[in-house]
Structure formats: C-alpha cells, structure tokens
Amino acid sequence: MMKKLGRRFYLFLIILFLYAPIGTLMVLSFNDSRTSVKWGGFSLKWYQRLFENDTILAALGNTLLIAVLSAAIATLLGTSASIAIHHMKKRRQSICMSIVNIPMLNAEIVTGIAFMLLFISAGNLLSIFGIHFEMGFGTVLIGHITFNLPYVVLSVMPKLKQLNISMYEAALDLGAGEGQAFFRVVLPDIMPGVLSGFLLSFTMSLDDFVITHFVKGLGADTLSTLIYSELRKGIKPEMYALSTIMFLAVFLVLVFVNLNPREQSAAYRH
Amino acid sequence: MYKKSLSCPFLIWAAAFIIIPLLFIMYYGLTDKSGSFTMANLMAVATAEHSKALFLSLGLSLLSTVICLILAYPLALILSGSRLGKSGFVIFLFILPMWMNFLLRTLAWVVLLDTNGVLDTILKFFGLKGMKIINTPAAIVFGMVYDFLPFMILPIYNVVSKIDVNVINAARDLGANSFQTLYKVIFPLSLPGVVSGITMVFVPSLTTFVISTLLGGGKILLIGNVIEQEFMKGTSWHIGSGLSLVLMLFIIVSMILSSKYDHGEGNVL
After folding, report:
1. Closest CA in chain B for residue A222
2. What ipTM does this complex have?
3. Do A11 and B78 touch (CB under 8 A)?
4. B146 vs chain A: nearest CA distance in angstroms?
5. Residue B43 above 70 pLDDT?
6. What string of H, E and C letters represents the secondary structure of chain B?
7. Which of B18, B211, B243 to mutate to test the interface with A (most CBs of A within 10 A)?
8. Residues in chain A within 8 Å Cβ distance of B82
9. Residue of B nearest to A252 (CA)
C-alpha cells in the first residue's frame, strides 16, 4: 500500500514538473497586469487583443500552414520511401535508414546552419543567372519537411514489417491491379503508422524554433521566431492567450479521441 | 507497385537537403575566406573563450543527462507496472506539453524560479531560505532537464514495457530478491532504451543555445550560443562551421556508442 502510494506520488511530482510551466502560462493569460511578476486580477482582455493583433495572427497562419503542408508532404514522401526501403536489400536498407535518421539525430543547430549555408549559396548561384531567390516561407517549408521525414519513416516502418505480404499477393492473384491492391489491402494495414507519422510531424513542426530561426530569412515569421524576437521587449501577454487556446484545443481533441478506445479497438478487430 | 522508382523522390530529397547541406558545413569549416584549405577554423575551438564555452556545455549537458536518467528510470518502471501504461496514455502525457510553444514553456520557468517568483514565495512561506537560481548555470541545467526529460522517459519506457513478465517471474522463482531482479535482469534488458535516451538528451543539451539564452540571462555562453552568434551576428561563417564540425565529432562519438547497444528497440516511437 505504502509502496503504491509512493509510486503515485512520484508520478504526480514528475507530471507536476512537466505541466507547471503550462499552468503558469495559462494563469498569466488571464492576468490583468502587463508584467508577469504581479497578479493584477482576472481579465479576458488579452484574448480580445489577440484577435486584433495582426502580427501574431499572421505568424499563427504561417505556423499552421507550414505545419500542415510540411506534415502532409513529409508523410507522402516518407511513406513511399518506407515502402521502397522496406523492399531493399539489407545493406542498402541500412544505408538509407542511417541517412533518414540524420536530421533527427544530428543537432538542430547544425541542421539549421547547414540549411542556411545551402540556401544562401543557392541564392548566390541563381543570381548569376538573374534569378532572385532568398530565404522565406519556401525554405522554412523545405527545412520542416526534411526534419519531419525520419518521424514518418520510423512510424511507418514497423507497420510494414508486420504486414503480411501474402495478402498483397492474394489481392493480385484475385485480379486486383497493383494500385488497387495497394490502396485497398496494404494502405489500410499501415494506416495507423501513416497517421501517427503525420501527427508527430505536425507537432514537431509546430514546436520547432531552431531550424526556422536559421532558414526564415527576413520574412516568414512563425510563432516561435516571433516570440524569440520579442524576448528583449518582453513577451506580449496575447501570446500566452494564444498558446492557452491552442493547448486546450489539442487537449480536448486528444481526450475525445482517447475516450473512445473501445470503438477503436473494435474497428481494428474487424 | 514496389518498383524501385518509388525511392527516387526520397533519394533526391535526401541528397539535396540532407547530404549536400552537411557537405557545405564541411566546406566552410575547412576553408578560409579565399577558399583555400585550412585547419584554423577547427583550431579556433582552442581559444580561451571557445574552449570555456565547450567545456561548460559538456559539463552542463552531462549533468542534465545524469539527472534525466535518475528521474526517468524509476518513472519508466512505475508506468510499465501500472494500468496507465496499457493505453496510449503515456505517450499522450509526454507529447502533450509540446503543444505549448517550447520557448514559452521554458520562459515560464523564469516566472517560477525568479527571485520573488512563485517557487521562491512558496519556499519563504514555509520559512525556508529563498533561492537564487535564475541566470545561473543551475537554471540552464534545470531547463535542459525540463525540456528533454520526455526523451529519456519514452525510450526507456518502451523497452521496459516489452520485457517478458515470465523472465522477471523466473528470476523471482529462482530466488532473486527485488533488488537482484532489477539489477541483474531488468536493467540489462533495458539497456538499449537507456542508451538511446542518453543520446537523445545529451545531444540536444550539448548543442542548445535557446535554453541558455532564456534562462541564463544572456551572460552565460554555451558552445551553441557561440556558433549561433558566428552565423546570425555575421562574424564568421567559417569559424562557425569549424566549431560545428568539432561539435559533430562529439555527436558522432555518442551515436556510435549508442548504436553498439541499441538495435532499433530503443526508438521513441
């Protein structure tokens, strides 16, 4: 009994540690006073001002657009890559896997400056031919797709390994075309992996600061880079309001999804 | 459908955006402004200012890795033994904070840890001495542990939860007490997760510049800060690349060490 209580308490302490800052930010988003040190009474004014703040809303738009696009493209690219890698010979397979993993294992700052050097050099090269190219939305997107790839491949790969190849062959024997066999037999089987790859990519893209910092150039601020540029002046409380809304939205969606695990497992069984 | 052409888009992408950018760092790191070969950028790490930053980074990141391991290991055992572990709840619990912006989450500790901050007030309320932690190396370690703890918990949890219960029962049947079972059975089996967790905490801690900027008050320079300034304040890309190459040496060594133990079981996913 005591042991169980001790375990619960330890779990509670770690959760408290992980969620204390989140609670703090939520409280601050309702703080009437401008400084984060003093409590000035309850207020919703930052939520109201948030929707009048074009800079933050533009950054939010960029962040979400980049997250959706990069996650979608990385999922497409990563899933096809996984299928190809899965059917490679052992040696090539392990070489490809190590390449995929580089953006995940390498330090973000190194990945970031490597991109920056590439894009600036590419810009210099293109300007010789009279083409104007500079860092912005596009380069941020490329960066995000690249660091999302390993997460997709690592989610899809295990599902491919569990896949029974005879099912695919049976579909072909029964007259399905290759495309039909893939979309109706293989894809539904690996779908959970594909989905979790997409969600993970989306989350990583949303939370990224370092790589965006190096490849955003002058335009294309995301929420992260906007916050970083506000550090000196002090963070605007509207930012706390926005992150509270985003956090709660995701929390509710995830709780809702998790509340129906029975339906889910039933769906898998059939 | 399983044609080789399927790998083409990926291979092109990987070549253009994974391999070539790294070659650029190597090129810049090993040449000077005129483009001729030099080792000077690598040697730049030996200057007093740079080596101080490197050793501080190494020290703080090692410390935070050890703290993460000490905190995460018992937690992984607790989670794998409880009902909570069965559903996707554990992943949910540790991925969820990522939906609050990483910079804001880290900044929130400034409010919590500041003199006359929340924690300070609580401590004083209980008659304890307040603490001065913000803008010190201790605050940076604190931030590293906070930001990267999930990356230690998840791989260990993944490996521990897959240990066959029969193996543990067998150890008990054969007369091992709880400590012996932990030390001689569970721990060796969990090693791939532990090693994977260590690299996943050590590498980002070693190379961070954000945490030190946010919690160090801008006065404490880690090697990440030095490199960032070389690039963003435009001092020298060549020296910045050279220092990155030195940093990559440490990353590669820790990756080789981890690949010796880890054969894919310790992945976060």
Report:
1. B101
2. 0.86
3. yes
4. 7
5. yes
6. CCCHHHHHHHHHHHHHHHHHHHHHHHHHHCECCCCCECCHHHHHHHCHHHHHHHHHHHHHHHHHHHHHHHHHHHHHHHHHHCHHHCCCHHHHHHHHHHHCCHHHHHHHHHHHHCCCCHHHHHHHHCCCCCCCCCCCHHHHHHHHHHHHHHHHHHHHHHHHCCCCHHHHHHHHHCCCCHHHHHHHHHHHHHHHHHHHHHHHHHHHHHHCCHHHHHHCCCCCCCHHHHHHHHHHCCCCHHHHHHHHHHHHHHHHHHHHHHHHHCCCCCCCC
7. B18
8. 7, 11
9. B96
Residue A84 domain-assigned? yes
Taking an 8 Å cut-off on Cβ atoms, the answer to whether B92 and A258 are in contact is yes
CA distance A178 to chain B (A): 6
pLDDT in tens, chain A (270 residues): 677 888 889 999 999 999 999 998 998 889 887 766 677 788 888 898 899 889 999 999 999 999 999 999 999 999 999 988 888 888 888 888 888 888 888 899 999 999 999 999 999 899 888 888 888 899 999 999 999 999 999 999 988 888 888 888 888 889 888 888 888 888 888 998 999 899 989 989 998 999 999 999 887 899 999 999 988 788 888 889 999 999 998 888 877 776 665 444 434 433
Domains of chain B, residue spans: 7-38, 48-261
CB contact under 8 A, A11 and B79: yes
| Residue A224 to residue B102, Cβ atoms within 8 A | yes
- Which CATH number does the domain housing residue A92 bear? 1.10.3720.10
**Residue A109 and residue B228: Cβ atoms within 8 Å?**
yes
CATH number among 1.10.3720.10, 3.30.420.10, 3.40.50.850, 3.40.50.2000, domain B48-261: 1.10.3720.10
